[in-house]
Design goal:
With 99 residues, the protein is mainly beta. The protein has 1 helix and 9 strands; from the N terminus they run βββαββββββ.
Length: 99
Amino acid sequence: MQLTLEFGGGLELLCESIKVHNVNVDPPKEEEKLTMKYLLSWVRTNLIKERPEMFMKADTVRPGVLVLVNDCDWELSGQLDMTLEDKDVVVFISTLHGG
């Protein structure tokens, strides 16, 4: 499944300063659908190069990370249980900034 993943608000620094990633992610063999929960685990394993604790806490994103799927807040669409479709655009933006 082809997805576009975008990182902003400083999260791109965890991915070697690359903001946009065009990736192919297949659902786990025991599942028919790709969920956000699996995608987050895949991102932590395959894209986050340093300080994964700044992106995730347990099996979800840290507080202060806004997640948009096709420009819609994931909190309105089921969060971790949300099913992704081919060519979806998932955006992760940190709303917390140091000063």
